[in-house]
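Contributing new records

If you add data, match the layout below exactly. Sequence lines come first and carry their own label; structure lines follow with theirs. Keep one chain per record. Anything else will be rejected by the validation script.
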Amino acid sequence: MKKPKQKFYVVWEGNTPGIYSQWEDCLLQVKAYNNAKYKAFENLEDAEDAFALGYSGKNYSESKLAQKKTSIKWADFVSSNSIAVDAACEGNPGKMEYRGVNPFTGEEIFHVGPLVNGTNNIGEFLAIVHALALFEKTNNTKAEIYTDSVTAISWVKRKKANTKLIHDSSNSDVFELLKRATLWLNNHSYSNPIIKWNTEQWGEIPADFGRK
């Protein structure tokens, strides 16, 4: 039998506000307390940050916590001359779209789709090539491109999308974009670094569509 995972309990409003490592101790603080505010977290760091941030209302969300944890950390490593790209797909295959954003301001630089019967990996691949082509047009050869897709990075290096998606009448637009992206990669050179976004330490990439 697996040992229960350690949790940490933040009590914002209770008999004695604080962080508790045992549910029984937390319960003592909130059980008889009117409108107690408390929540469980998976690790001590999250609990400490959440306690410091304070309770943000009835619909408490961890988004504020995530913002605090990531906004400073990734900004220490990511160049201001960069773009973050990502894709989303409703079903796989399904409705696919991709975009590029300024990671610091959230400004959407390009957005393509939704397109019928694509895949997430194809969208990630197309987003990188779109950014490369855009930087070539603006002669911005040093701008960094951030993506959270290892697969898409490998496809760009091979100059071809290694997809198993079947081409039919429903996804002609997707395959037309793939054809154009492949031609671009094979007829152009680029020096823009393509860098894997460190999701584990930095949180979701700023171009994320927020549908997970």
